[in-house]
Amino acid sequence: MTRDGETALSFVVFLVKEALDGRPEDAPHIHYFCQEVAQLLLTYGADPSRCREDESSLMETCLEHFDLHFSLALQLLQGGASFFCTMHSPPCWSGFVLIFQRLCSAVQELKDNTVAAGEVILKAESILDFVIATSLDVRIPKDFVISVENCGIHAQKILSIYARLKDLEHTPAPLKHLCRLHIRQQLQLLNLKQKVERLPLPDRLKEYLLPTLQFSEAAGTCNGCHRVHPNDTA
Question: Domain extents for the chain?
Answer without folding.
Answer: 175-232
